[in-house]
Every structure is written in C-alpha cells, then in structure tokens.
Amino acid sequence: MPKWDHDGPILEIDKLSISFFTRTREIPAVMEFSAKVMPGEALGLVGESGCGKSTVALGVMQDLGVNGRIVGGSIMFKGRDLGAMTPAELRKVRGSEIAMIYQEPMASLNPAMRIARQLMEVPMIHEGIGEKEAYARALEVVRDVKLPDPERILRSYPHQLSGGQQQRIVIAMALMSKPSLLILDEPTTALDVTVEAAVVQLVKDLGVKYGTSMLFISHNLGLVLETCDRICVMYSGEAVERGSIADVFDKMRHPYTQALFRSIPLPGADKNARPLIAIPGNFPLPHERPQGCNFGPRCDYFKAGQCDQGYVRMAMVDDDDNHESRCLRLVEIDWTAQPHLAEQKPRNPIGDVVLRMDDLRKYYEVNASALFGSGTRKVVKANESLTFDARESETLAIVGESGCGKSTFAKVLMGLETATSGTIMLGNQSIGDIAIEKRSTDTVANVQMVFQNPFDTLNPSMTVGRQIIRALEVFQIGDGDADRRERMLRLLDLVKLPRAFAERKPRQLSGGQKQRVGIARAFAGGAKLVVADEPVSALDVSVQAAVTDLLMEIQRENKTTLLFISHDLSIVRYLSDRVMVMYLGHVVELGSTDQVFSPPYHPYTEALLSAVPIADTRVQKKHIVLEGDVPSAMNPPPGCPFQTRCRWKAQVPGNRCETQMPEVRLVAEGHQIKCHLSDDQLRQMEPVITIAAE
Questions:
Q1: pLDDT digits (tens, 9 = 90+) for 180-203
Q2: pLDDT of 372 above 60
C-alpha cells in the first residue's frame, strides 16, 4: 500500500468565491464553495454545464486567465495556501504535485513531438533527472496505462494514436511525477463506452498504486459511482449536496440531486409506462440568479416566502456532518415519497416496413500511403452485408464503437455517399445508388438527420426562424411567405420553444435549445425517416431527458421511423424498440430491446453492456474490459471480425473464429446473432447486469 506523505487533507477548499470581470460587470461564477479531498480519496464533482465545476478546477490550478479572480475563501494544498504562492512556487507544484487531465487529449499534446519526448520532459523539468532515467520512467508508465507495444508508442506522434490511446498518454503524462492530486475534467466524454470503461478502471488502479488523490469532474453520475468515494453536487456556482456515494445516491436530500436522478434512464425506465421526468425551466445565467435558493424557480418543493428569502446555508442531514444539503425545507420534505409520474403515453402500433437494406456494402479505395501518393491501393470495408428493415413508428437503435460503420451507413442512407453494392429501399423506391443532389425533393424531405453537435449545422448569421423557413422553401412546402412563417411558428411550438425565439441567432441559444431547432428543421418537410446521430450525447443529462421526450412525442404524432445512433446503452434501452449492434462494418446482433439486453448475447454485446456506467447502487455488473482497439477496416482480421478481442474464442473448437466468417442465425424469433458459439453455449451465458433486491 502507498504511504501518504501528508496526514491532513490533500486539498481543502474553504468558502471559495471566483468571479470573472467584464467591461460592464462582475460575473460571480463560484460562490462560497467548500470541499475536501483526503489522501488516497476520490471526490466526484457533478452538475450541469455552467455550474462552476471546471472553474473550481482552474481555481485549484491558479489558472483563471486575465479576467478570472478569486474574490474570497482559500485553497489549501497539503496545508499550503495556493493563492499565496509565487509564480515560481506554483510552477514547481503544477504538473509535479498537482496534475490535470482535460476533456480533449489533443489539447494537451504537442503534435510535432514524439510521445517519448513529451513524457520525458515532465520529470526532467520538475525533478532534474537525466534522459536515460526519464525514458525508463516513461516506458514504465506507458506499461502502467496498458498500451500495447510501449516502445512503438513512445516512438509515435500523437496523430498516430487513437483517441483512447491519446487519453491514456495524457494520463501517463500526469502520473510521470507521481502527483499527490490528480484533477480529471470530463476525461472520458469523447471516448467510446468500452474505452471509457478501460480508462476509468485504469485511473482507479493507478490511484491505488501511486497513492494519488483525485478530483473527478463529470456530468455522468454512473461514472462517479464507479470511480469516487464521495460526491459533491453543484448548481449555479454553489455546492448543494455533499456526502459519501452511498449517502447521496441512496439518501439524496436536495431537490436538484433528486431531479438529476429522475432525468436519467435508470433500469426500469420505460418511454411509455415510466417516462423520464425532465427538470423544468432553464439553468439561470450568473447575473440572473433568483433571490434565495438558486434552484427555487425549477423546484417541485418551492415555497414562496420561504425559499425566495435571503441566503441559503449548508445544513447537516440527520446529524451526519459528512452529509450536507443546501435546502431550507430539508426536514419538511418527505424524501421517500414516490415522484408524480410523467404523463404516460400510448404506444403507437408498429406499422409497415418503411426502410429495407439488403446486403448493403460500402467500400472506399485509398492509397496505402496517401501522404506520399503510393501507387498501391487498398480497400476500406466500412460496411459489410448490412441487411435489416425499419418500420413505421419504430425506433431502431444502432450501437457500436467508433469505426464500426454506423456513420458510414447513415451517410449512404442520406445520399451523402452511394452504396458500393446492395440495395436500400425507401418504401418501394431504391435510393442506395442515388446521390443527394440527384434525389427528388420528396425523397430529401422524407429522409432527414439530427446531428450530434447542433451548432455545427446552424448558420450563425441567420435567425432561427429564417433557417426553418429556408428548409420549408427547399422542400417546396407552403403557399407563400405568410404561410411558411405560420408553419415555422407551429414547428417552434412542436419542439416547445417560445415563438419569440424565431428572431434569435444560434449564439443566443443554449445547447438544448439549438438541438430543438435542429429537430424542428429535420421535421419541417414531414420526414418519414429521421436518422438521429448521437443527438443528446453533447447535452446535459437534464436536457437529454427533455430532448429525448420531444423526439418520442414528435414520433408518436407523425408516425416517424427513427434510426437512433448512439453509444449510450442506457438511453438506447429506454427509448428503442429494436437494437442493432455493429462491429467493424458487420451486424453482429439484431433483436428487440429486451432480447438484446438479456442473455444470450453476442460476446461483443456482452462487453458493451458491461461497460455502461449505471447510476444505481443496486446494480451489480459483470466486469469485462475489452483488450485492444477496434481493428482497422483497411486491414480487418481473418475469420470473425471480433475474434481479436473476444473472451469466448477459446470455447470454440478448432480455429474457426480465426479462419471462418460466422453465419447469421436466429436464436429466437426476431433475434439474430452472428457468432460461432453453439446454441448451448449461448444459452449458458449469465446476465451482465443484475439488480439486487431491495
């Protein structure tokens, strides 16, 4: 076990207040925030975007830029006041004793330097050790972060590594000087769920090995449950609840914490019988905070004359000084009462087939060395023999890691690419070989897409109303300007945006509001089929619930077929009717949601389910971490595409997994699996996720 070099708290933040100063006003970002991290402990900091989580981290790093300033309170690191340190003293502490891992790994890596040099710089600068010793230490930490072929990795440049490998290098860099405190700011947001699981396990193991304390910033409550000992929930610049993981998850005592949990799809949530409950209203801007409790305007328990008066202080929960809540009605509220269920919606009957794909293939020919124009050409097999159908009013989820071919098939469906072979039938019309510029207006209007990042698809110089009217003009809908304007206003009503937003520019909208505009535009032509490509992954959990519910409501009203591309299996389980699992261009499993989420599974589906973080202490999961990365589609492995990472391969006699492509076979009506495992072996599979009895 590691020996701690400090007896008291590693980090002690006391009544910290941070403001940013503009030409017109002071904007208070964090107000009287207190937290403590003990040796070897991991503290999770959670809350919506804009609540001040990252500002606290930058305050600890004393890196608030020219406009940011600590205006009150203190930050003590190992008993020393960081705010009183000189720049030279801070340079010795930062990167050596306190290290930070950011959300985007490439922002922390120099694209022009080899990995070895970037890692070696840390101890050479902070500890003054020689190159030979620094290289040996770099090799050790690259092995610690479980990267294959460490010597090759050290010779590589950042662009030669995958996103997951880059993030592991950033973690290795942070650990090079064996820091006492590691700050992780949304370190897995951009990663696949399988890579995320491996990185989280890695961080936990290394925390134990090196005795590192952690401040883990995330909006993913499931990740915090799996990685942290204690949790601090933030809302609008303040800590609103603090306590151990068990206290806060099982005995939440603040309305905001409760509302966060009700807006995420935990086991048992059902889009028709038990819909998610979105948090009403919007997050307040720093200069528009209400009187009294900041959460008051969005709170189910708000009481005028009490909750809107004066400053609200933290109070102990049940005389437990380790569990605190910032709620004036803490002792009055019945925290065990069941929530009022959101309105139950009737399920639309699934209709006729709208889309049918048969043996779809999409190959790309590229130079083996595109950079130098080599004459040798290789084929990238992005999609291989995709065969499935989707019906009216159905939600078909498509899941898999980056590089599995989800987005490629979406591009072919949209007409942004054309199929190499196979057919795509929209109704009774073949569209697979018709590029978008040659498609009829009706076809374009009928197949629409909602993208992951709404800001990238909106014209920043056009008002919201004009962008929706433009879509109506392109789809040739409406009799003149007045009719189109009225239709645009009705579309804003449909996505639950105020009509006044028609005159706003995209920069004046929040992320969730921008995504609603994208949905309004997608449905402007009365689309029969909508491809939603990670439509909520960039949004806060509270906004995710509202946008997901909105998609379901529009689908019910218009009988739309929804293809929902996602790596978040919790949301997939909540809203999909059927699930298609893809790996390296192949469909490896397809069935109803209940079939795919219960054994028998394809071994890849089993690993995906194991990787999903679930914010419920009752959930017990089988721990399966996939080794290695998804192979290149330019050089796929022989035999089964998943055989290089499959933990079941040894159960198959002979070397069939390595030499033969498995056949697709039905294991139950409507449930198909592409695997060499026998029916008996599949039937013996145990559930990955179980829920302990109350």
A1: 999 998 887 767 787 778 778 878
A2: no
CB 323 within 8 A of CB 231: no
Closest CA to 164 of 511, 611, 544, 531: 611
% residues pLDDT > 90 (the chain): 55
- For 353-576, CATH number out of 3.30.230.80, 3.40.462.20, 3.40.50.300, 3.40.1440.10 equals 3.40.50.300
d(CA 270, CA 373): 53
- How confident is the model over 592-608, as a mean pLDDT? 94
Instruction: Using alpha carbons, select from 647, 639, 572, 636 the residue that is nearest to residue 602.
Output: 647
Q: Which class for 81: exposed (0-12), middle (13-18), buried (19 or more C-beta within 10 A)?
A: exposed
Q: Are strands 529-533 and 447-450 parallel, antiparallel or unpaired?
A: parallel
Q: What distance in Å separates the CA atoms of residue 165 and residue 476, rounded to the nearest whole number?
A: 48
Rg (CA), the chain: 26
Q: Which of 281, 264, 277 lies closest to 224, judged by CA? A: 264
Spell out the domain ranges in the chain: 11-228, 353-576, 583-691
CATH 3.40.50.170 fits 11-228, yes or no: no
Helix (H, G, I), strand (E, B) or coil at 146: coil
Token pair for residue 233?
A: 């929930």
Q: Tokens standing for 577?
A: 């009717």
Q: Which of 30, 18, 15, 14 is nearest to 67 (CA)?
A: 18
| 11-228 shares its CATH topology with 353-576 | yes
Helices (H) and strands (E) in the chain, counts: 22, 26
The percent helix, strand, coil of the chain (3-state, each to 5) is 35, 25, 45
Q: In the prediction, which pLDDT does 693 show?
A: 66
pLDDT attached to residue 5 = 58
Neighbour-count burial of 327, counting CB atoms closer than 10 A to its CB (0-12 exposed, 13-18 middle, 19+ buried): buried
671 CB contacts (<8 Å, ≥6 apart)? 589, 590, 591, 592, 595, 596
Closest CA to 453 of 136, 94, 247, 190: 190
User: Measured between alpha carbons, how far is 50 from 292 in angstroms, rounded to an integer?
Assistant: 19
- Who contacts 83 (Cβ-Cβ below 8 Å, separation ≥6)? 62, 70, 74, 75
pLDDT digits (tens, 9 = 90+) for 73-83: 999 999 999 99
Mean pLDDT of the chain: 88
Mean pLDDT for 435-449 is 92
pLDDT at 48: 85
